[in-house]
Amino acid sequence: MTSLHDKAQEFADELTATVHGALGSHVPAFVAEQAPEPSGPVTRVAVHPVGSAEIPLTIDSARALSLIVDFQCRWDHKEAFLAVSKASMGVVPRSGSTPLFRYEFHDAVGDDVPCAHLHVHAHRDEFVFALFRGGHGKPAVRAKAVEGTKKRATPQLSEFHFALGGPRMRPCLEDVLQMLRVECSIDVTRDFTYVIEAGRARWRRRQVSASVRDAPGAAATTLREMGYRVDEPVAGPAPERLTKLTRA
């Protein structure tokens, strides 16, 4: 039987293939490390770069940023599949220790805070400097700014496009409303929690249905693994919608 550590190492190998393929083989590989347990079987495995090292990010071949990544893994509720119970991905400027921003996921964070969320740490100037390092904006616009024929080519924090899960996993209105309730204490009705949870469940069921149509083969395989009987259509298996599966 495959152990939790083995499954986590498979996940680590996938992450290694991603960073090596995207950034180069010089960046640290990912490893799976068992969390210390007082007694009994292993229930948690950490997946992160070797030695919890930062992943260097360069701009014009010069070190500019660092990516800090950490996952905490465990078995799912049926102890059949690997589940990520906690994840953190932060981007840190080369000259500092505080992230510009970080994505967080914590499966047991509590009902009042979104389990998947984004923290922005940086002041505006730090972000603008990072954008300048990358030559943000069209070259022609920057050239006109230097010439004085265009008033503004300075990048703005508001122009930074944060990735939030693509066409299927994007936040819903209910997520935004709950965020404003928790973080800003907006006034809500007595039925707020019920309405938000019902709406979010409805949204996610629809997204699951849409995701199944995007990857019917994967959906069928998962259902068979859960004990369902799934037969292929007479006309043959439906193709994947790669434009949806690959879109950021």
Using the alpha-carbon principal axes, give the shape: globular
Which radius of gyration do the C-alpha atoms yield?
Answer: 22 Å
What is the number of strand segments? 7
Computed structural class: alpha+beta
Describe the structure.
By secondary structure, the protein is α+β, with helices and mostly antiparallel strands. The chain folds into 2 domains: 1-122; 164-248, no CATH class. It contains 8 helices and 7 strands. It has helices at residues 4-23, 124-133, 139-147, 166-169, 173-184, 192-214, 216-225, 242-245; strands at 30-34, 45-49, 55-59, 62-75, 82-93, 101-106, 116-120. Strand 5 and strand 6 form a beta hairpin. Helix 5 (173-184) runs antiparallel to helix 6 and helix 6 crosses helix 7. The longest helix has 23 residues, at 192-214. The radius of gyration is 22 Å and the shape is globular. The model has no long low-confidence stretch (mean pLDDT 85).
State the main characteristics.
248 residues, alpha+beta, 7-stranded antiparallel sheet, 8 helices, 7 strands
Chart the SSEs and their pairings.
Layout lengths: L3 H20 L6 E5 L10 E5 L5 E5 L2 E14 L6 E12 L7 E6 L9 E5 L3 H10 L5 H9 L18 H4 L3 H12 L7 H23 L1 H10 L16 H4 L3
Antiparallel strand pairs: 1-2, 2-4, 3-4, 4-5, 5-6, 6-7
Helix pairs in contact: 5-6, 6-7
